[in-house]
Amino acid sequence: MKTRLCLVDVTLWCFVLYLTWHVPFIEMRVDDLEQPALKYREQPPASTEKPEPPKQELKHGKCFHMPRSRCPPEGVKCTRVDPVSVFCCDVDSFRLKEALAIVMTQNTTNLHVLNANIEELDVSQAVFRRLSSMAFTDGNIGKIVGQFPKHSPIACLNISNNNLTSAKLQPPIQRPYAYLFNLTMLDASANNLTEFPLSLVHSNRKISVDFSGNNYLPCKHFQKAMETNNSSLVTFVNYERTFCALDLRFNWFKDVQIVQIDHLRVQKELNASCRNIKPANINCTCVPERLELLGDEVTNLVAVDCSQRHLKEMPTDLPPNTVKLNVSYNNITSLQPVSDDPSYEHLRQLIVDYNDIVNIVELEGTKFIDNFMYFSISHNKLKTIHTYVLSNKFDMTGIYTTFSIGGNYIHCDCNTEKVLKPWLLENFKNIPDYKSLECEGGGAVAELLEADVCHSPRDWTDYIYYVIGLEVLVLVLLVAKVSYDYWVFKSAGYLPWPANKMPRLPCDWLCE
């Protein structure tokens, strides 16, 4: 019995010595999938303090990146490049998960996965939690799901050349990048994106983005990113090689032109030219209206808003290539500058509603009349519409030209009913509010009646038809009387009255 106890004691002491010797060299893992038992341990209270991300210096603003020549040997999918960096090559979802469980430690902050064929990349995995540089390049990712954890330390994210589309990059329901508060570099180049991820650049920190190779990102999305208050904090990497899709529309024609994004940086210059508009200090608003391809050059077209500025005359010295001007709700009385000022040369849309303009004669023969697509002069003080100013305009441009004149009370006379009313009815497709053009005395111009407005003093010519009718009647009666007398004379041998009272004439022998 004592011998057995001694053997047990010796065995226990040997086991204790073994543990004492080997435990310090056991490496602890942090992956939740590798240690599922951690889920059942008692968790300490969650800290409300924002954890400090590891300070990983990124060289030249690029994520940790390794060439294919440094891929692990055959049979090994991931390898540790240095104490904080892991490099994987040619993996699928299962092999990547398996390999990362082996090589990733709590000290790993850099990860580059080359040529990953993954249907769903779940960025919420715990294995990515401590990364400051994360790169998945030159592969094929079906879509990105999940969400980066709160206060993620990721400072550089590289998802270039993965055949990603906008739907795959940023699903409409999920928000994978909501908590990337430390992100300073995003490389999404060489994909097939069609939407600019504005949520990644609308922040109060400096961020560099690379969207080169995504030629079908709409130019208007780049404009929004550049027009924000923090646009100076956004830097476009590979700026000269970044292009966008320019949506060209003119009337029924639609096309897409690929242009370099440098054409979009015009707002600063536009603001400067906007301040030069006269009268001075009226604080008009100038914004890019659209881009237009003229020959081989892309021109930035401008929209100017000078409404509600208490103007008494049309503004002058508009920014170059102004195509739209809104001067509604002012006290303007004349449109003469449209004819005289060269800055109106490219104007296509003019809105002068709620002013004091009395006619449009000053626009006769101007380039604006020849080229305008929208002209609204409703609720002014027009007394007549000089249709000859717009002669043949609607015949040449068809339904793509709009002329708005509602809310005006003009002087109506017979000429209005004879000329203006038919003109309105003929061009009703181009004048959508033609029924709102009214006479000073009430009633719509389109409903004028000739009897109500066409009145003139009568003279003898007004009775000419009656005179002619009477002469015809007398002639008919005369012919009938002569015929009757002739018949009586032949049948009875005498002439009825008054023929028998008439003296004989030298020519009577012709009838005997």
Automatic annotation (TrEMBL):
Q: What InterPro entries does its record include?
A: LRR_dom_sf, SLRP
Q: Where is the composition biased (Basic and acidic residues)?
A: 49-60
Q: Provide the alphabetized UniProt keywords.
A: Leucine-rich repeat, Repeat
Q: Where is this region: Disordered?
A: 41-60
Q: Which positions are tagged coiled coil?
A: none
Top-level taxon of the source organism: Eukaryota
Q: Which protein is depicted?
A: Protein halfway
> What is the protein's species of origin?
Parnassius mnemosyne (clouded apollo)
Q: What is the lineage of its organism?
A: Eukaryota, Metazoa, Ecdysozoa, Arthropoda, Hexapoda
